[in-house]
Amino acid sequence: MAYWDIGPPDAKETLLLTHGEPSWSFLYRRMIDPLLSKGYRVVLFDQVGFGWSDKPSEETDYTYERHVAWNEDLVGVLYICLCYFCCIFICTAIFHSHLI
After folding, report:
1. Residue 9: is the preceding peptide bond cis (ω within 30°)?
2. Distance from C-alpha of 91 to C-alpha of 56, rounded to nearest angstrom
3. d(CA 12, CA 42)
4. pLDDT tens for residues 3-12?
5. What residues form DSSP beta bridges with 42?
6. DSSP reduced 3-state for 37
7. The predicted structure's pLDDT at residue 83
């Protein structure tokens, strides 16, 4: 999974910017600098199968469960969800509600 972690690692708040289908993290190119100037740490990534991330070779890998599993390490930060992947992050948040 391709990702970018930008800004101070000790920032008070971290923002996770995720994208909808069929987009990629390039969607947020104009939002990053204003968020950094406010002191936020910004983490953005391309969902598996999109943008700079690897594309699974097996069609059966394209499921909600697989996307949730790929994103579990990203739990614990603010979610900005759009479109299709909102469901994935809702599932991730439910499975790891103690981290939010």
Report:
1. no
2. 21
3. 11
4. 888 998 888 8
5. 6, 15
6. helix
7. 45
